[in-house]
Amino acid sequence: MSASRFDQAAVQDILRSAEALRWELGRDYHDRVVETVYADAAGIADRAVTREGDRPRFDLDATIDRLVTSRVWGLPIMLLLLMLVFWLTITGANLPSNWIASVLIGRIYPALKQGAEAVLIPHWVSGMLIDGMYLSTAWVVSVMLPPMAIFFPLFTLLEDFGYLPRVAFNLDNFFKKAGAHGRQSLTMVMGFGCNAAGVVATRIIDSPRERLIAIITNNFALCNGRWPTQILIAGVFLGTLVSAQLAGLVSAASVVAIALLGVGLTLVASWVLSRTMLKGQPSTFSLELPPYRPPRVFQTLYTSLIDRTIYILWRAIVFAAPAGLVIWLVANVHLGGPSLAEILVNLLDPVGLFIGLNGVILLAYIVAVPANEIVIPTILMLTVLMTGVTGVGQGAGVIFQLDSQQTLQSLLTAGGWSLLTAVNLMLFSLIHNPCSTTIYTIYKETGSVKWTAVATLMPLILGVSVTFVVAQIWHLLAGAI
Amino acid sequence: MSCEACPVHNTGRPSHLGVDMGNWDYVVALAGNPNTGKSTVFNALTGLKQHTGNWPGKTVTRAEGGFEYGDKRFKLVDLPGTYSLLSASLDEEIARDFILFGNPDVTVVVVDATRLERNLNLVLQVLEITGRAVVCLNLVDEARRHHLRVDERRLARDLGVPVVPTSARYRQGLPELLAAINDVAAGKTACKPHRIGGASPEVEQAVSGLARKIEAVFPKLTSARWVALRLLDGDARIAAAVRQGELGELEGASQTAVEGAALAEASA
Hints:
The complex is a heterodimer of chains A (481) and B (268).
Chain A: H1 8-25, H2 29-48, E1 49-51, H3 60-68, H4 74-118, H5 123-161, H6 163-177, H7 184-191, H8 195-201, H9 208-217, H10 227-238, H11 244-275, H12 297-332, H13 340-354, H14 359-367, H15 375-387, H16 404-414, H17 419-430, H18 436-446, H19 449-480
Helix pairs in contact in A: 4-5, 4-11, 5-10, 5-12, 5-15, 6-7, 7-8, 8-18, 9-11, 9-19, 10-11, 10-17, 12-15, 13-14, 14-15, 17-19, 18-19
Chain B: H1 7-10, E1 26-32, H2 38-46, E2 63-69, E3 72-78, H3 90-101, E4 106-112, H4 116-129, E5 133-138, H5 140-145, E6 148-150, H6 152-159, E7 163-165, H7 174-185, H8 201-217, H9 224-232, H10 236-243, H11 255-267
Parallel strand pairs in B: 1-3, 1-4, 4-5, 5-7
Antiparallel strand pairs in B: 2-3
Helix pairs in contact in B: 8-9
């Protein structure tokens, strides 16, 4: 097209003479140019830089690096740091969570109901707006805001400090063994924030084969939309199995276990892919460890609150409030007997129970394809509406003398949840199809329907298999006891 | 009257404009090694809040923003960090294509003052392509912490382009950086960029001969000399660009990258 505007003969002449000159100059031409650049750079830098005084005897950065990237201590330190972050999140979120719940649901909700009755608003309007939209939004805010407001700033502080590349450094060797590119450890760490961003970040990998592996497996890195689900379910179901002193520790350990399982799955899936669909040798690369930089604490707190916490909460509410409306309608529109929601949930229930989940969770995952953030809100709304416990806090406020976690647990237990449901929900939240934004990004980056389908369906099939196997083993063990 | 509405406030400081600016007087590219604070400089100049991170590879796409200085409007393009312009991966290619084919009026190379020698490798390669460059000597606060002193005047003399020490995290040196960009854009600063020296006469003859031929066919090209160097090095991508007559026409080459950036931002 545009080539016609140029003199083809002249273009051929350029290429021909370049080729001829390359032979004349010899094969070491490239090395000579690079060497000249390096020598010039060294000379200029040497003239411009002076070191004042002696080299400091104690180099803090190097000392920290020796410790956090050491063969022996690197991984244990990483686990300890992760544990600490989740422990702080789970134990710290309890109190504000209770406080917000007691105000929004314990006080404001009954007041709204009474007010609606007093001004004679029709039952279906107040049901839709107050039981549907308000209650679901209130639940979302009280159970999701406090953990996120603690977790995201802590995570961002670690990132700004420069710890994440060290995590990548520690994991690099495993990726090489899995037949993947070492830089995939970086894109995976990026996926801990957002999988769509992680998929875009795979551009740092130059080999197309290894880049595809990184794209397909990025979904196994728990993203911002899924951390709250893990933290919440771990706190409600696993933390309560042990005494109050140990609760935080056990919940934190189970979230870390799920995150590590994700890393393990990334490695296993990469290994399988590099031996089946995407065969090849891993290429070498260099990974630069950036200097530690003291994080600017206030700015970090501010941006992580605005960029992540409020953003994700906002996404959850924006999707959850209208969903709450629809779900209220679905739960209250009766088709000659059972409500529409009951029909749908009953339809999905056999499949759900088969893999140790239930119909409500499956319906929530179908609703939540656009955003993982609304899984928990949708589950809560459906459970509240289907079990008919909309009157929580309305009567004597008995339920709110307990803390919000126990309220949540009794609510979900009323919806037929067991410990197996909770464990499998955590597993399924880790292993299922990526959200629609990520799927679209994968398509944009690969330009291939085939690889987009692989990246979407592989985790879904794996997730169903894993939850199924866990459920069967669970039933077997339960039967044996 | 608010500060923002005051004319004094807006001279010598970039006004924080959104995306409504359609017409630009100058296009400025922001290049540099990974993790030197390019995105921080970008945010500080444009008032945008691209997420920054303390690790190499945080920016893999082109991000664009704008600022005003004096009565001129500047479009600022934040490029992915690269160690060289020899381009191996997609992110490096995006950076190289823009400097080479995007015809920026000024290329700002952000360098890490604590790792000057390694960073200069990229600076020297950029200077081979374009002399309309400003070196932003960033992280001078960190260099001070490590008891390093960089003589920016000596550096500017050796490189032949303006060198501005900054500490973008703490918004230090930004007015000086803006002034330097403006002066180079307007042609007020005469740049005499350092050329990679030490080449044997035969190499020099080969490069300049080939460059003349390229220039005759592609007069709009920023640096025929760099294209000649790459062809002599057997760079297949550059050879393909020559064959298809794309040189000097590639302004929209990285369009998909921009869409990717917007998407990543929307979902981050």
